[in-house]
Amino acid sequence: MINFNVPPFTGREQEYIKQAIDVRKICGDGQFTARCNEWIEEKTGCKKALLTTSCTHATELSALLADIGPGDEVIMPSYTFCSTADAFVLRGATVVFVDIRPDTMNMDETLIEDAITTKTKAIVPVHYAGVGCEMDTIMDIARRYDLTVIEDAAQGIMATYKDKPLGAIGDFGCYSFHETKNFSMGEGGAILIKDEKYIEKAEIFREKGTDRSKYYRGQVDKYRWQDYGSSYLPSELNAAYLWAQLELADSITADRMKSWNAYRSRLKHLSDEGKIELQSIPEYCKHNAHMFYIKLKDIKERTKFIEYMKANEIMTVFHYVPLHSAPAGEKYCRFHGEDKYTTRESERLVRLPLYYGLLEDQVDHICETVENFFK
Predict the structure, then answer these.
(1) pLDDT in tens, 322-351
(2) What is the CATH number of the domain that holds 283?
(3) Residue 8 within a domain
(4) Residue 1: predicted pLDDT
(5) Which domain-ending residue is among 246, 276, 301?
(6) Is the model's pLDDT at 359 over the cut of 90?
(7) What is the reported pLDDT for 24?
(8) Residues 234 and 256 placed together within one structural domain of the fold
(9) Domain for residue 3, yes or no?
(10) Mean pLDDT, the chain, as a whole number?
């Protein structure tokens, strides 16, 4: 069986975890957490990056920093993971969905402005598959209406929009280091902060509402409870695991790109023949080979395709079920305008195996099996 995903592993993870254990520093904010934070800051140019226990928690931190509360509205696509909406629903806000673009599966930037009301507080673009949303338009709208932009860049590390790193364009950005992502710490994430005025508050929220970060830096002689907050710090053991991959980020990305390009080259003829649609990458975007997906005719053909691939010991999967069709989506959210593409396109999309270390002959076998399905 060729699995859909295999968590990344470079071979130095155990060594670094042992180092963390040997210095008896396994709770948050040790040397490996610091290295990971600094790496993100250097790669993206954000003012501050802070590792978190998940991308979900990074988004929750963003909601806190943006002062989202009851009565507020937040605009985002329905085609995303529930965590994107959860962070704002927890704050008492109403999530307003707009339709997606069928080419990138990203939020349609031309529909945002019509969804804005006097209650709108933030826009949350989701960079699907590591392909950037049309951020110039989104940032222009945000500036004109005085809205906060929180990028869900869970899949976007090492990807850019017009040479700007995803996650570092808006006011806040959120990365994921879940085991299904390009770089992993099992469960984990990071918040990227653009404006330094938010750094101290972010540290307090992240450290249970205390100024413990200042204490560790020797800025105060004791730490105290300063505000509300929660425990968003990942274990140093998780950070050690992640660091083993971040230091090899370029080679991991190159390995994934090799598989992505091989898929693209091999399956292009099926697209030319009108049997599938391939992923669209706008010329202003540099993606990170987070996933390789194809679109089939409809949900019936997709179901047959997934069953066929599984019978041939290849695991392929569909992705998000639109949030507005879920019970919680109906309860806490609303869809603005017409669902022209969100449901239709989500029912056609299927993802092929893609992970660090996927072998060339495995990609060949997968492509041959895809071709055989259409024969």
Answers:
(1) 999 999 999 999 999 999 999 999 999 999
(2) 3.90.1150.10
(3) no
(4) 96
(5) 246
(6) yes
(7) 85
(8) no
(9) no
(10) 97
| 77 pLDDT tier (thresholds 50, 70, 90) | very high
Count: domains in the chain = 2
214 and 291 in a single domain? The answer is: no
* 131 occurs within a structural domain: yes
In a domain, 308, yes or no: yes
Question: Domain containing 198: what range?
Answer: 13-246
Q: Quick one: three-class SS letters along the chain? A: CECCCCCCCCCCHHHHHHHHHHCCCCCCCCHHHHHHHHHHHHHHCCCEEEEECCHHHHHHHHHHHCCCCCCCEEEEECCCCHHHHHHHHCCCCEEEEECECCCCCCECHHHHHHHCCCCEEEECCECHHHCCCCHHHHHHHHHHHCCEEEEECCCCCCCEECCEECCCCCCEEEEECCCCCCCCCCCCEEEEECCHHHHHHHHHHHECCECHHHHHCCCCCCCCECCCCCECCCCHHHHHHHHHHHCCHHHHHHHHHHHHHHHHHHHHHHHHCCCCEECCCCCCEECCCCCEEEECCCHHHHHHHHHHHHHCCECCECCCCCHHHCHHHHHHEEECCCCCCHHHHHCCEEEECCCCCCCHHHHHHHHHHHHHHHC
Boundary of a domain, candidates 213, 246, 279 = 246
